[in-house]
Amino acid sequence: MLATIAGHLTATSWRTGIAVLPPRIADALLRVPRERFAAGASEERAHDDTALAIGDGQTLSQPFVVALMTTLLQPAPRHRILEIGTGSGYQAAVLARLVAEVRSVEVVPRLAERAAALAHELGCANVFVRLGDGWQGWPEHAPYDGIVVTCGAAAIPPALLAQLQPHGHLVMPLGPPDAQQLCDITLDARRRPSVREVLSVRFVPFVHELNRDHRCR
């Protein structure tokens, strides 16, 4: 899996600016058992570099995309990260090996409960999952050193920009479903946003559920 990711990084580096997977992120990917998040896929299939369906119209992102988004966040051991779209919980589990705290918001009840339980089973005590509308972020624990969004939107949610530290990274897909761009959004010291298009991607759409909001773990 890591060899495939390395090949993709080399091939896309002219666009992403990332040619090599940082050793800390490579180690985190190796330490997380991806097959536990693959919703019934065989172990061999779980490690293929492809997205996998996990039910409720959601997917487990391909390893290359997880590696790329994680690298764009520039995670440091002291960081507190917000994730929007917990899904299977795989991205959160990878980040848990890299940062101090991961807070993740998921709109689908079954996925939120399963991801929280799996994080507990795998000893990710620094992962906290909340059922709710990701468009609003998780303001009670803001600001965050980085934010990653695993669903596509036409625009940047204002609440997420408000919850991002200056010079932090907000990594998310933007644009219509057939023309999404993975974007790296940063704020300068005066909180003015800068958006860099990184790579063409295809993610499930952002879902709003304003009447759901509670913590699973």
Q: Return the string of H and E elements.
A: HHHEEHEHEHEEHEEEE
* Binned strand content: 25-35%
- How many strands appear in the DSSP assignment? 10
CATH topology value: Rossmann fold
Radius of gyration: 16 Å
Principal-axis shape: globular
The average pLDDT score comes to 89
Corresponding CATH architecture: 3-Layer(aba) Sandwich
The tally of structural domains comes to 1
Helix coverage percent: 25-40%
Classified by CATH, the class is Alpha Beta
For the termini, the CA-CA separation is 30 Å
Structural class: alpha/beta
Strand order of the largest sheet: 9-8-7-6-3-4-5-10
Low-confidence runs of at least 5 consecutive residues: 210-217
Number of helices: 7
CATH superfamily: Vaccinia Virus protein VP39
Could you outline the blueprint of secondary structure elements for this entry?
Elements: H1 2-16, H2 23-31, H3 43-46, E1 52-55, E2 58-60, H4 63-73, E3 80-84, H5 90-96, E4 101-106, H6 109-121, E5 127-132, E6 144-149, H7 158-162, E7 164-174, E8 180-187, E9 193-201, E10 213-215
Parallel strand pairs: 3-4, 3-6, 4-5, 6-7
Antiparallel strand pairs: 1-2, 5-10, 7-8, 8-9
